[in-house]
Amino acid sequence: MPGRLRRRRSGGAGVVAETLATSSLPLLEGACVSVGFPGALSLRSDAEAEDYYGLGIVEQWRVLHRLLADRASSRGDVFRLLQNATNSFEPKLRFLIPGTASHLPELLTDQVLALNFSLAKEDDLRIAEAVQAFGLRPLAEREGPAIIDFLSSWVVHNSSRVRRAVVESLRPRGVWVKHLQWAVENPALLLPILDTLQRDDSRLVCNSVGNSLNDASKAKPEFALEIAQRWLDAPEKGEWTEHVVSKGLRTLLNHGDPRAFRILGLETLQVDAKARLKGPRTVAPNSNLELELEIRSHGEKESRATLVCELETPGKNSRRPRRRRRRIGTLLLPPKDMCTFRVRERVYDKKSAPLLDGVGRVRFFLNGREEAEVSFELKRI
Question: Within the chain, what is the greatest distance between any pair of CA atoms?
């Protein structure tokens, strides 16, 4: 019979660098003129002089941050200029203001926070990401743990976007940013924020709390496990607390840490499993493996299982193959019955580490224990 698989929503395709054909620089110049940036109409030529279209997307943003900051600093009223820009009709300019402000040392911490606060409330998540990565994150690096006090009013703000910005900006690892070293080394410093917001009524905020705990688990697994257990044992749990914990322990689950499975109540399963290829046995890099996983449960009641897939491909050293794991989702296995699941696994190639020809393997783990394996041939066409 078909099983029930609670799948995660797949993420977006991401953002790509601008090309000459897709450039937003003309629109950006117009927006800069309207708010009074000096030298606005030379922005495009200055960016192109720095090989703008040959850079990755984050480096393109950094070029624009610097160019806008250089222009803003030639005005006596820098703060007012950037305030006007936060109200611009052009989203790209609003997106760039957090990073621009971070390049202006003459701005006071309170002024930088004020600029970011007005943008953090926007519904556009791209601008929200800019606030946490390019606006608040540099402040967190500069101020250290003292930034937590600066952001205390954000933690209790009625906008979930504002509350989320706090958590995202202080994640030990984060997105588009370097590791926040003081948070990596001592994630307990974040507890005044995480303890409060893990009970938040917004899933958006709670997702960020879970991601922060997951970041912490990579360097401090014992800390993550202790905090996860404490949150679950609290007399008054939040609506999303169990979701937060599951998200926060996902790396430990992927690596089969038995403590993480126990905390989430994932029991040892009584199952037999078989994996088979549903397509050609020989595959090329950057193609898909089509797989079928057959699971027979011998348990007396419905059981919940976390399914993790590990892809192994040949390495330069035959004793050290490359391995990549991903958590596929949660399976609900009916008692004393058999379920079949279809899985698609992408065999990615990278310019920095091209795949090598040879025998590869796909392994399936249920609640941390390996239950099935199938091999395939990897060959460049």
Answer: 75
